[in-house]
Specification:
223 residues; 65% helix; Ferritin
Length: 223
């Protein structure tokens, strides 16, 4: 099994390479255009790829599930430590959902609902939320909880909830990092500064939270 540190190394290397040598597109005169010139040609929108769009669309649903998971903490009697963590995850990922929706909207791309109500409806309707992927795709997104796992988390109480929440959120965060890994392997992806900064933050923030949750999990007994 790859550890969070092992997952980070190739991602951080790829991010560093992209930041240092983003390719420029040729102009009509044969000269390379700067990112600013490319953006000016497209109404101020920096160049982006289909992979960037698919990533944003998929990550909205991925983040929405994390927000839904975090909402269970208080009513299910989570410890204060887990409630604080869940609150931070909820706020951070809700803000990122808003950013991703805005990014897609400005580029006139399909914007998934990606909110707690939509995720709750899918869950109560018996849909397997692990199958909610980028628009038009039906494959599983890495780390997404299945309906059975969501049911387990929703019904767990007290110390049992803490254990399941930490275990499932580690799974979920590792999945998000894996999605970034896949994006970075796509040709020309993440050259948009906003996308690059966002995926860099996802790797840094969620890797740090994985490390923290693994430490918290060591002090808890499996139900």
């Amino acid at each position: 099994m790859r550890t969070p540190a092992m997952l980070r190394r190739p991602l951080l290397a790829a991010l560093a390479i992209l930041s240092a040598c983003a390719p420029a597109a040729p102009s009509r005169t044969g000269r390379a255009l700067t990112p600013a010139q490319l953006a000016a040609q497209d109404g101020g929108i920096p160049p982006y790829t289909k992979a960037d769009v698919a990533f944003m669309q998929g990550m909205i649903g991925h983040h929405a599930q994390a927000v839904t998971m975090s909402a269970f903490a208080e009513p299910n009697g989570a410890s204060s430590e887990v409630r604080v963590l869940a609150g931070r995850i909820s706020v951070a990922q809700a803000d990122e959902i808003a950013f991703m929706k805005t990014w897609l909207g400005k580029r006139k791309q399909t914007v998934p609902a990606g909110d707690m109500d939509a995720m709750a409806h899918a869950h109560h309707a018996g849909m397997d939320m692990s199958a909610m992927s980028a628009a038009g795709n039906s494959g599983m997104m890495p780390g997404m909880l299945t309906t059975a796992q969501m049911d387990t988390l929703k019904s767990a109480k007290g110390p049992a909830f803490d254990w399941y929440f930490l275990t499932f959120m580690i799974q979920h965060h590792r999945g998000a990092i894996s999605m970034v890994d896949e994006l970075m392997s796509a040709k020309g992806a993440a050259n948009d500064d906003d996308v690059f900064k966002f995926v860099s933050d996802v790797v840094a923030d969620q890797s740090t939270e994985i490390d923290r949750m693994e430490l918290m999990l060591k002090t808890r007994t499996r139900p």
